[in-house]
Task: inverse folding
């Protein structure tokens, strides 16, 4: 009996099948919340992350949004624009427009907002493992840095 022929047996006999079993027989699984919109958001986020990483070393310039110089929100704006999504210009506006998510739900490509006293003053793109791509300040450049504070919030571009 081939693996493909076992799928109906697994489903009818057990009433369910694990994701590993499905993968082994070439099936697919739609997880809760795994809508086509969520998959598209992940695709956009991954592309934006790659665009930001490709700008490594580009110098900081206040008010710049690429293609060769960036401030923090200019980098996120540019990266998401290249990924097919439109963001407003400033870090605060981007925070207001993004869908808020918990730190435990964050994924690579999500936006990381730095805040103080209710004001968002910096934004970067989450790269995973506690790091972000960002354009931090005058005299600096686009780079990958460890998140240095707990005063962050996360947002997802939809």
Result:
């Amino acid at each position: 009996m081939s693996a493909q022929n076992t799928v109906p047996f697994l489903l009818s006999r057990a009433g369910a099948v694990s994701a590993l079993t499905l993968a082994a027989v070439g099936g697919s699984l739609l997880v809760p919340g795994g809508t086509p919109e969520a998959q598209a958001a992940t695709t956009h986020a991954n592309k934006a992350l790659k665009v930001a990483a490709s700008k490594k070393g580009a110098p900081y310039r206040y008010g710049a949004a690429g293609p060769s110089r960036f401030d923090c929100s200019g980098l996120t704006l540019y990266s998401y624009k290249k990924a097919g999504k439109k963001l407003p210009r400033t870090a605060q506006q981007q925070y207001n427009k993004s869908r808020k998510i918990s730190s435990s739900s964050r994924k690579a490509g999500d936006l990381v907002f730095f805040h103080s006293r209710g004001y968002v003053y910096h934004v970067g793109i989450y790269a995973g493992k506690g790091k972000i791509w960002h354009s931090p300040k005058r005299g600096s450049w686009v780079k990958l840095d460890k998140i240095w504070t707990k005063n962050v919030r996360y947002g997802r571009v939809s």
User: Anything to note?
Assistant: Residues 1-35 have pLDDT under 50 and may be disordered. The first strand starts at residue 99 and ends at 101.
